[in-house]
Amino acid sequence: MPLVDTHVHLNFDAFAGDLDDLAQAWRAAEVVRLVHSCVEPGEFPAMQAIADRFPELSLSVGLHPLDVDQWTVTMADRIAQGAETDARVVAIGETGLDFYKANNVALQQEVFWTQLTIAHQLGLPVIIHCRDAARATADTIHRFQTTVGSVTGVMHCWSGSPEETQWFLDLGFYISFSGIVTFKNAQQVKASAQMVPLTRLLVETDCPFLSPEPMRKERRNQPAFVKHVATYLAELRQMDFDTLAVATTRNAWELFRLPGSWSDLPLGQPASIAV
After folding, report:
1. Alpha carbon distance 220, 164 (integer Å)
2. Dihedral angle at the C-alpha atoms of 144, 8, 224, 216, nearest 10 degrees?
3. Residue 210 CA, distance from chain mean position
4. What band does 267 get if pLDDT is binned at 50, 70 and 90?
5. Is 104 helix (H, G, I), strand (E, B) or coil?
6. Pairing assessment for the beta strands 153-155 and 126-131 based on DSSP bridges
7. Sequence-ordered strand ranges (E) for the chain
8. Do residues 83 and 92 make contact, with C-beta atoms less than 8 angstroms apart?
9. pTM exceeds 0.90 for this model
């Protein structure tokens, strides 16, 4: 059953030298699309080169909150230009807020707001990284939506509580779960994964990080392992795997407006998809 890995970093050194083998593995696992996230605009050309090799890749462009010290007056234009000049760009980010040991909160908030503005102007979703900053992130999105205009996106690699999860659902965001949800002690994440409506659920690897069970011993995560995330989520939610796969694939297509139509994929005849 086809799947979409909505967050990968294939340009990282961990993947140097064997991308062709990895592509064979993700295709064998029926991963039909991948969204390649961007940490900082300087890596965008390398991401484009990988997408030239593997047409199932879509791209984002943006600046990670842990890298905002790189922010310059020209970077907003670089991000917007990258998005406007490459049709494979389906999102802005990853952006967001990370207050874990942060001493640059004001700058993070400024850069986050700027990237929300770019996404709004271009009609693209945002890929949001959020660590120890759920309240501030939700408040910023709400303030943007009420004072500037619409913006939507995904809370990627989500590890927040059910209460925090509901804040972002109320803002119209999708919630994406990574291998963290399979970890034994991740009870808060499991509770959140059980309460997200099926129409807002996404899956990802965030590779090369966070290999899921039963692949935890593989220190390098890879796109093929997203099938383990989806399998675990289906079991956790006590539902049929095919139904979850269809739903998350459809959600990814709708959020990122991926090329073609998800309904053209060989999805079989799963059970009806409930909200």
Report:
1. 29
2. -90
3. 14
4. low
5. coil
6. parallel
7. 3-8, 31-36, 57-61, 89-98, 126-131, 153-155, 174-177, 201-203
8. yes
9. yes
Structure tokens at 198: 């099926």
Question: Which amino acid makes up residue 188?
Answer: Q
Handedness of CA 165, 230, 30, 260 (dihedral sign): negative
Residue corresponding to tokens 């400024």: 110
* Cα distance between residue 37 and residue 6, in whole Å: 8
Hey, what are 156's tokens? 């990627």
Per-residue pLDDT tens over the stretch 13-59: 999 989 999 999 999 999 999 999 999 999 999 999 999 999 999 99
Query: What is the tens place of the pLDDT at every residue in 114-124?
Result: 999 999 999 99
Round to whole Å and give the CA distance between 88 and 272.
31
Q: Are 188 and 159 in contact (CB under 8 A)?
A: yes
